[in-house]
Amino acid sequence: MERETFSKYSWIDFVFSVIGVFTFLADWGSDVWVATEFYCRGHFFWFGVLIGLMVLSSVVVQMFSWFWLTYDRELPGFSAQTGAETVLFGDRVKLSFLLHVLQLGFLCRHISAIRQGFKVWWRKEEGSEYAVYLTHDLSLLRLIETFCESAPQLTLMIYVMLRTNKARTVQFVSVAASTTSIAWMVVDYHRSLRSFLIHKDKQGWGSSLIYFLWNLLLIAPRVAALALFSSALPGYIAAHFLMLWSVFVVWAWQQRTDFMDSVGGEWLYRATVGLIWYFSWFNVAEGRTRGRSLIYHSFMTTDGVILLVTWWCYRDLVQTETYALALLIALPLSYLLGLLLKTLYYCCFHPKLLRPPAREPGLPDDLPDSEVSFKDFSIQDGAPSSRLANKRMACHATNFYTEQRVLINPHDTN
């Protein structure tokens, strides 16, 4: 039976893949430009921090990419359904590993997605499901890259402008590139989540717009508050990050996340989730979503208030005179508006459990109904079928969309 759950590859997916490559290259180019400017002007500390963020982000993304490649190769029927000729690396494991060591794995994934998408969309060849599979992995990798590099880098650039009380062209370019990267990630990630909805027609671009706005209005004040705090007490921001990151990693562990297929990969995921939570909410487990979200936003609101009050008390009165009061008012209001838009999204745009999806023959009738269905993950169930679905994005989709526990676990491999 054909199911609506999985979208076919379209020209919009191809355009998103192409733009994703240009966004990645532009972001990387702006990073190199900024780093060169810092080095040439003798700002070696800022140069070191920026290079450190670039290296950390790249290493983390390459590790996720490599873990996922190894997991996929072990899935029953994966090679048969994707076809060796559709995979950029083919069966050359050593070459794949070398490319990831050289920090080229992420870029090669982009090229592979464009290549596969071109074959499907332009040449009308088979492999639509695998093309979608690749774009889903890229969406998750871009999400990770954004919060490992773009968000911290945006904080650094704002901090530099506040400390020097001036902004050069290269800094504006870096801020624009980081902001664009975050914005693109938000829209792209939401599109990937929506692809797992049965009733996709009920989730138009309006939902993506609201999703983008409330994320922007929550992330921007957070980044600004961190930059302001750093400008007043630069020696304490590292301690602040390590303290909150440690708490978030423990919280992720306490929620018993089960995203990766290995113990080492799972702890990498939890550490990355802790970094993401430092900037924005990201649901990682089913059940009690509202409660966890309320706890998180209450905690982050309190932390944000502490950061702003500390900055207000220790700021340079002369240097900040022109904008201090405006920021003190605008940042909390922006965050509050973001929370209101988030509430609006969940009340008016978030999919509800509207009607049960069509069931496959032989399935029991007492399974819970949901907007997200995972039975088609037969490639993960141990028996190949005609369906190929990305369980990693589906895991996030079920955490984001479902309001009750699904008995069919997308992580099952048996």
Helices and strands, with pairings:
Layout: H1 11-40, H2 44-74, H3 78-82, H4 93-101, H5 105-121, H6 128-164, H7 169-194, H8 205-232, H9 237-254, H10 263-277, H11 289-314, H12 324-349, H13 378-381, H14 391-401
Helix pairs in contact: 1-2, 1-5, 1-7, 2-4, 2-6, 5-6, 6-7, 6-8, 7-8, 8-11, 8-12, 9-10, 11-12
Provide an overview of this structure:
With 414 residues, the chain is an all-alpha fold. Helix content is 68%, strand content 0%. The protein has 14 helices and no strands. Helix 8 packs antiparallel against helix 12. It is globular and about 65 Å long.
Radius of gyration: 22 Å
**What is the H/E order?**
HHHHHHHHHHHHHH
Taken from the alpha-carbon principal axes, the silhouette is globular
Give the terminus-to-terminus CA distance: 22 Å
Structural class: mainly alpha
Mean pLDDT: 78
Strand content: under 5%
Q: How many alpha or pi helices?
A: 14
How would you sum up this structure in a few lines?
This protein has 414 residues and is an all-alpha fold.
Features:
disordered N terminus; 414 residues; disordered C terminus; globular; 14 helices; mainly alpha
